[in-house]
Amino acid sequence: RDNSGPMAIQPPEDGGKRNLTFTYANGTQLIHGGQDSITFHGSEGILKAGRNQLESSIPNLVDRDLPSSDISLGDATDHMRNWIDAIHSRKDPICTAEIGHRSATICHLATIGYLLNRPLNWDPESETFSNDPEANKLLLRKYRAPWNLPQLTAG
User: Cβ neighbours of residue 119 under 8 Å, at least 6 residues apart?
Assistant: First the structure.
């Protein structure tokens, strides 16, 4: 989903700051589970990932070698080195600007979901909330003078 985003955001039932659920167009759910982890609920099982953590409800999934036909990110142990190498080679880094943007967007959507504490519908194409002017107002902030980006509007 590197070039897309969730379609729905569901806050936790208890109004807390954990377990906000993002649902993607294909039905995959991503649950914000805590400090350093995310949980993906898919049709075949659950995958939990975080810094120095990778767990799955599917036996041996995290130990399997991926088929060569699967998408591979390559070695992602040193993002700064990868970025410098990309500059020299003029190739894309492992995380492109679009991937970085979409990754940061998820964080902003989580903040808005927790803040408003109600279900939200997100359009990843237009990058706006459907029929929710209050949520759309939270997508931008006023810039300090003399900075201005008049082409950016939300809602």
Answer: 8, 9, 10, 11
